[in-house]
Amino acid sequence: MGSGMLKFTKVGQDYPAKRPAPERDDDFLEIARPFIVEKAEEQSSRCSQCGVPFCQVHCPLHNNIPDWLMLTSEGRLEEAHAAMAATSTMPEICGRICPQDRLCEGNCVIQQSGHGAVTIGSVEKFVTDLAWEEGWVEPIRPARDRSHRSIGIIGAGPAGLTAAELLRRRGYAVTVYDRHDRGGGLLTYGIPGFKLEKYVVGRRLKRLEDGGIRFRYDFEVGRDASLAELRSRHDALLIATGVYQARELSAPGVGSGGIVRALDYLIASNRKGFGDKVPDFESGQLNADGKRVVVIGGGDTAMDCVRTAVRQGATSVKCLYRRDRDNMPGSAREVQNAEEEGVEFVWLAAPAGFEADGDAVSAVRGARMKLGTPGPDGRRQPEPGGEAFREPADLVVTALGFSPEDLPTLFGASDLGVTRWGTLRTDHKTMMTSVPGVFAAGDIVRGASLVVWAIRDGRDVAGRMHDYLLAEDEAEKEAA
């Protein structure tokens, strides 16, 4: 153990300073100022180097957190980065957008003892950003040439990109198909720049391209090729499309103009940030400028929407959520950031209908809720609780979560099995779908979840696909 560790009793917890709300609420730059080297070393030295590191246990990737905190505290930053990259394909992205308060930091032993968690995410972000600046991020070098085997990956989100990198490292020829015109999935089009600036995703994509991975954008399976046609082109396929179908709200007046889906709203904002032509933004349909905005929902997507509306120049932004603060699914840090930026939260409130002025929404009619007994997820269930209320609105954004699209129909693959929730059914051991040689990973299997879980699934499925292709090679040798 490094001699400079266990300083949590002498050194207090200190996160990177945030830019003041008046400075940050009119741009889409990340809100936290970066650590300097001395501060990263100081905060890393607070780690207690636990015999059973709960931070590592509760990280979906089981990152070697105590090891790289010790290395950082000793100034061995290149080695710290190598330890991060050993288990994660996107450590600088996880350092920015993982809900550390619910995962590694939330389970930090010194947090439980009242000293405040080690600032794990901030250290991870600092070290990996420095690694890019210093040239420590190594290019992809295939361990051997297996290019006689071709792999197709449907979806350029975190699960698909992780699998693509790890399979390319093993030497396979890899092609990634995506229906958007840029890679990254929700990293690019769903998450706003104030949480994840887009150059961070772009440099990862460039590294994959430089490593020999081929990308085919604006490619829709079912339109440009059926699943069976893609399967005939490749020795194995991975479906990693994520879940994009918005859950709809059923209430009187829900079809009024000005009621929009969260993902449509966020994609328009991110495209505008890229400099794309976005007609629905220019027309005002997906632009909050000068409007009274109400966002319905309590997850991280809802937080992205309210904070985007602030930056677009909304006159007021309110978030309606049917539970209270303690029972919301979104990050507590994001709620705090939103409140600092002027967002008002209306807790224990559910929409009951919408009023319209002509074709455009003018108000949300709501009902007060109360909390009942806990449900299967441990959160108390909302129940009707009392009086009605009315909230004026010119733009309503519904952020109620996402469900899987009907992939068997979209892909022209009726033999592709799904669960009762619409997610793809896979063999838990092999991660293969009901179609031989076609695998699936990420949200399309587990349902809407965290980016870090998608990375974990991409890592796991890469190993299963490698095993499958090795077995195919052996079978061909035996048959020859």
Whole-number tally of structural domains = 3
- What ranges have pLDDT less than 50 throughout 5 or more consecutive residues? none
Helix-strand makeup class: alpha/beta
Shape from CA axes?
globular
> What would CATH call the homologous superfamily of the largest domain?
FAD/NAD(P)-binding domain
Major sheet: order of its strands? 3-2-1-4-15
Question: Can you summarize the main beta sheet?
Answer: 5 strands, parallel
List keywords for this structure.
alpha/beta, Fumarate Reductase Iron-sulfur Protein, Chain B, domain 2, FAD/NAD(P)-binding domain, 5-stranded parallel beta sheet, 15 strands, 18% strand, globular, Glutamate synthase [NADPH] small chain, iron
Structure description:
There is one protein chain. This protein has 480 residues and is an alpha/beta fold. It has 3 domains: 114 residues, Orthogonal Bundle (Fumarate Reductase Iron-sulfur Protein, Chain B, domain 2), CATH 1.10.1060; 174 residues, FAD/NAD(P)-binding domain (3-Layer(bba) Sandwich); 122 residues, FAD/NAD(P)-binding domain (3-Layer(bba) Sandwich), CATH 3.50.50.60. Helix content is 36%, strand content 18%. The chain has 19 helices and 15 strands. The strands form 4 sheets. The chain has a 5-stranded parallel sheet with strand order 3-2-1-4-15, with helices on both faces. A 5-stranded parallel sheet has the order 6-13-7-8-9. It is globular and about 75 Å long. The mean pLDDT is 96. InterPro entries: DPD_II (IPR028261), FAD/NAD-bd_sf (IPR036188), FAD/NAD-binding_dom (IPR023753), GltD-like (IPR006006), Helical_ferredxn (IPR009051). This is Glutamate synthase [NADPH] small chain. It comes from Pacificimonas flava.
